Amino acid sequence: MIIVTRAGVTRDEVDHIRERVEAAGLRTHLSVGEHRTIIGCVGDETLLSERALLSVPGVEAVHPVLKPYKLASREFSPTPTRIPFGATEIGGEEFVVVAGPCSVEGPEMMAETGARVAADGARGLRGGAFKPRTSPYSFRGMGEEGLRILAHVREATGLPVVTEVMDTRQVELVAGYADVLQVGARNMQNFALLTEVGRLHRPVLLKRGMSATVKDLLLAAEYVMSQGNMQVVLCERGIRTFETATRNTFDLAAIPVLKRETHLPVFADPSHAGGKRHLVAPLSYAAMAAGADGLIVEVHPCPEEATSDGEQSLTFDEFRGLMRGLEPFAAAVGRTVASTGAPVPA
Ligand code: PEP
Ligand code: MN
Predict the structure, then answer these.
(1) What is the mean pLDDT of residues 179-183?
(2) What pLDDT does 346 receive?
(3) How many domains does the chain have?
(4) Of 53, 211, 250, 313, which alpha carbon lies 20 to 30 A from 280's?
(5) Which has the closest alpha carbon to 131: 182, 79, 80?
């Protein structure tokens, strides 16, 4: 249920409305607009009397939230959520690009990647220390050593770190190093993990499951938010279909659908969606045109030597070309994108 306050409502009135709702056993969430405040109420709505609420001073209207995802829905918070991220924010005017290898492979390659992508406009560094691999015999990440390397590169470059957490038992450890906790496609419906990251005050990058609907993704975000953590970035990374020409099928339409349904920022991952290097730029441009707030992209100093996802990783020069290529699209959609530092080689 959402309570819309009248224009010019006082702080005391808002506090009083909240006390009323909380006394009935529900939780409240405030969305403060320029003229009005919206008070979202979460919990058993049958415990609230709409009639009684309408007579509380400052209340203008009371509406049920019809969507199954309450906190994530746009009705709940009409203003888009902005999440502080290093020197910028996610969900604001700037289109934010996070770049780095699929897996952290060692200190040198991470230091080199961090320096290069930062110089070319990346605002965040990615790299998996704990890797979900289809085969148990594939490289499964450097673990805590990988996290230490990421933290070190953050110090050197100033880039905030996005890295995956796969298990509830790792949450504390990963949160000790990461600026943003990535919950991967394979864990999108790991409800214990979603609950655990929801207890932290740390942004979560939630990737869409391979066979998850948009509604499933929003309900997964709701799990995190229902624990009190409102800082969720959704990520479209392609879904499984009958098509085999691409690694996954990039569901471009999911981006504007999500932007309409939720106030949460939406990212795209063109690397895992396409699965091939040459698809990364076109999918990135399309994502920006469709309204995405940013990208997470795989970049490697030498893709052919990568321990995972080499075929879809960009070289440094290709990454620079991508950042350059985004500029006209950013101008077309009225956004900014960090510019690259050096000219594109001929
Ligand atoms: C990744 O980001 O490296 C990754 C494993 O992504 P996804 O969970 O989307 O497959
Ligand atoms: Mn990968």
Answers:
(1) 98
(2) 47
(3) 2
(4) 211
(5) 182
